[in-house]
Design a protein that fits this description.
With 290 residues, the protein is of the alpha/beta class. Helix content is 41%, strand content 17%. It contains eleven helices and nine strands. Strands 1-2-3-5-4-6-7-8-9 form a nine-stranded mixed sheet, sandwiched between helices.
């Protein structure tokens, strides 16, 4: 059963939904065809709040992933297939029928995995700076092992939260992805990264992350896919989106000039200008002035 939480700005309302195995927190705004919004590792559904008011004509649904934001995990299910399966169960429980699944970074990989699990097949998938490539070289070997080692210590998430949680460090971290942090973005990510539970959930996701099975079947995903690639993204290079678009049977890739990894937060108007007409054509929103 959904339980309302405090409403955010622009008519975005938070809800708690208990759908096994997790206690989910979800932001919902608008009316129309369902569009499911999936954040990336280390983020939350709040990362979509600047974009949501710019996409009228849809019911926009932005859950916090298990262990991140305000979603409390009820089981250690942090891998890509497990999260996609649990999101499909949440959609079934809540009665959602997403016509589009839109994901940022790692959320785009989850969106592609989820598309084949939903009761009603979505019409399309969108990825914003889609993380459709494993870490390369030494990082590919070290990062998952480091994340797994860090999850073994109950104190590590507190230590990471204390080290990363200072606002100047958060601004530098955002800057390292190619995006420009304004005060609002810095405050939002400071709140997240200061929360040891959120840090622990992010580490568990990193420790369990394995893209290989999804990437092996990328050329068999027969849904329309739109990939948006920030030209300044230093977390997921634009070449990843272009390369993935060539492999996907029905995909297009559009560059976002001058934008970094958090493009939908630093320049939501620019992203909405591309995204809204595309969503309207694909999802069939009606009565919306373009």
């Amino acid at each position: 059963m959904a339980q309302p939480t405090a409403p955010a700005a622009h008519g975005i309302h938070g809800q708690r939904i208990r759908a096994a195995p997790h206690d989910w927190h979800v932001r919902i705004a608008g009316h129309g065809p369902d569009v499911l919004l999936l954040h990336g590792a280390g983020g939350s559904g709040a990362s979509w709040e600047r974009l949501m008011p710019l996409l009228p004509g849809f019911r926009l649904i932005a859950p916090d992933l298990p262990g991140q934001g305000q979603t409390r995990p009820g089981a250690p299910r942090f891998g890509l297939p497990e999260m996609a399966s649990d999101l499909a169960a949440l959609a079934r429980h809540a009665g959602w029928a997403p016509r589009i699944v839109l994901g940022h970074s790692a959320g785009a990989a989850i969106a592609l995995e989820l598309a084949g699990l939903l009761d009603a097949r979505p019409r399309a998938v969108v990825g914003v700076n889609a993380a459709l490539s494993p870490f390369q070289g030494v990082a590919g070997w070290l990062f998952p092992r480091l994340a797994r080692a860090m999850t073994l210590s109950p104190f590590m998430s507190h230590m990471v939260a204390r080290m990363a949680g200072a606002p100047p460090r958060i601004a530098r971290l955002i800057g390292s992805t190619g995006s420009t942090a304004d005060p609002g973005m810095t405050r939002a990510y400071h709140a997240l990264m200061s929360d040891p539970r959120h840090v622990a959930g992010t580490l568990r996701m990193m420790a369990a992350w394995d893209l290989a099975p999804l990437l092996a079947r990328l050329d068999r995903i027969d849904l329309p896919v739109l990939l948006l690639a920030g030209s300044k993204d230093r977390a997921v290079l634009p070449a990843v989106s272009h390369r993935s678009a060539r492999r996907l049977p029905e995909a297009a890739c559009i560059d976002l000039p001058g934008l970094g990894h958090l493009a939908h937060e630093e320049a939501p108007e620019a992203v909405a200008e591309i995204l809204h007409p595309w969503l309207t054509r694909r999802a069939g929103a009606e009565g919306v002035a373009l």
